[in-house]
Design brief:
Blueprint lengths: L4 E6 L9 H15 L7 E4 L5 E4 L5 H8 L5 E10 L3 H12 L8 E8 L8 H15 L4 E2 L6 E7 L4 E4 L3 E2 L11 E5 L5 H11 L3 E8 L6 H15 L5 E7 L1 H10 L5 H19 L5 E2 L12 H8 L6 E2 L7 H10 L3 H4 L21 H10 L3 H10 L2 E5 L9 E2 L1
Parallel strand pairs: 5-6, 5-7, 10-11, 10-13, 11-12, 13-14
Antiparallel strand pairs: 1-3, 1-4, 2-3, 4-8, 4-9, 7-8, 12-15, 15-16
Helix pairs in contact: 3-4, 7-8, 8-9, 8-13
Length: about 400
């Protein structure tokens, strides 16, 4: 099956006006990163925003898999590249029509003629290519409204492209084009999906995980490292901040009202994450909260907890339920890791009847009584370990800072 090049299409970045060049440069960097293992593949950029990858013998399947990790890429097409000459285009059209084991019964030809010096206009090319195909492929009919296969032909100045297939990309914005945020990453299903969706909107993320050793195991820690590694497949690398939270949790258990433990714990987490964000030049916090899913995610609790942070708190999953979240987790390959039965600190000391409608004044009064809390938060930030996680299999490249 012949594939010379892969045509690339971009979504929202094409609407960015004066910032478009910046967005294009960022997506070029990401494309080159994911294609680095395919040494012979080359990225080409033409006028009018067209980019394509010349495979030069590299595997199309491997290139497609790599490009599926590039945010901002709307779709790709495996294509045949030929000279802008009628005979070459007719031959390529036949090759493309014979690409499929099950032959279509109907087709149409769509021509885009960028090269205005080409001797045949668009309408002539429809007839010249469509007629050539009908002469050489049995059992075909033209259907311009609902064809089983649409053959696309782009005639440009130096080259022409023939293709019939579009493969969806992840869409969104190029990674890092909208700044940096801190992802509060638990070991559950939701927060990795929130991280993926945040990256899709152009955020570069750093992950923050709270652990309560010895109440949580090394396996729980490894589970979060593995989740970060999957997300790093889309980013090249991600810094993971491992925050010791045992002391704060145990003191909260000893000194505050039982039904407010979850609310106070989450507020402490927000404050720690915000301080880490300031150190890492991040401008927001990303969480996996979904409205009404658990006691701490009622609107009242979200309001009280969210006020602990002064920077924006982004909740990509806030209106989604598990039936919508799980398919995304399966697609990005975090789901099998997320369901491993290793508890994180959020499952510890959970009261039987947590408050679903806490009073902000009561919560703030409770915190004012806990004179130890600011120092405990400062110590947790100071003792936080940072790991650089890369997408490769566990190796020496994962290391502490």
């Amino acid at each position: 099956m012949r594939t010379d090049v892969i045509l690339l299409r971009f979504g929202e970045i094409m609407l960015k006006g004066r910032n478009r060049a910046r967005f294009e440069n960022q997506i070029v960097q990401q494309i080159k990163r994911v294609l680095k293992p395919l040494a012979k593949a080359e990225l080409h950029k033409e006028s009018h925003g067209r980019m394509y990858v010349e495979l030069n013998g590299e595997s199309y399947e491997e290139a497609q898999q790599a490009l599926s990790k590039v945010f901002g890429l709307l779709s790709i097409s495996p294509a045949i590249k030929v000279a802008p000459e009628l005979a070459a285009l007719q031959e390529a059209a036949l090759v493309e029509m014979n690409r499929y084991p099950e032959k279509p019964k109907t087709f149409k030809v769509s021509v885009r003629r960028v090269n205005k010096q080409f001797p045949h206009d668009t309408y002539e090319m429809h007839d010249l290519l469509g007629g050539h195909i009908l002469q050489h492929v049995d059992g075909l009919k033209v259907d311009v409204k609902h064809p089983e296969l649409e053959l696309h032909v782009e005639i440009r100045n130096r080259d022409s492209f023939v293709y019939s297939k579009k493969v969806a990309g992840p869409g969104g914005f190029p990674l890092g084009s909208n700044g940096k945020a801190m992802l509060m990453l638990s070991g559950g299903i939701d927060s990795p999906v929130a991280g993926y969706l945040a990256m899709k909107r152009g955020l570069r993320i750093e992950a923050v995980h709270f652990h309560s050793y010895p109440y949580t195991s090394e396996r729980a820690k490894q589970k979060v490292i593995d989740l970060t590694r999957v997300l790093a497949d889309y980013a090249g690398s991600i810094h993971l901040h491992l925050v010791p939270f045992t002391e704060i949790q145990t003191k909260l258990k000893e000194s505050c009202r039982d039904n407010l433990i979850i609310t106070l714990m989450r507020r402490a987490m927000y404050r720690i994450t915000e301080q880490l964000a300031e150190k890492r030049d991040a401008l927001a916090i990303v969480t996996g909260e979904s409205l009404g899913q658990v006691a701490s995610q009622t609107l009242s609790n979200m309001n009280v907890i969210g006020r602990a942070a002064e920077i924006p708190v982004l909740r990509p999953l806030v209106t989604m339920d598990k039936l919508e979240i799980i398919p995304i987790a399966e697609t990005i390959r975090t789901f099998p890791i997320s369901i491993l039965p290793y508890e994180d600190c959020c499952t510890l000391f959970v009261p039987k009847s947590p408050s679903t409608n806490p009073s902000l004044k009561v919560v703030e009064r409770q915190e004012a009584w806990m004179e130890w809390l600011p120092e405990a938060i400062r110590e947790a930030v100071e003792k936080t370990e940072i790991m650089l996680i890369k997408p490769e299999e566990k190796s020496e490249e994962d290391h502490l800072f």
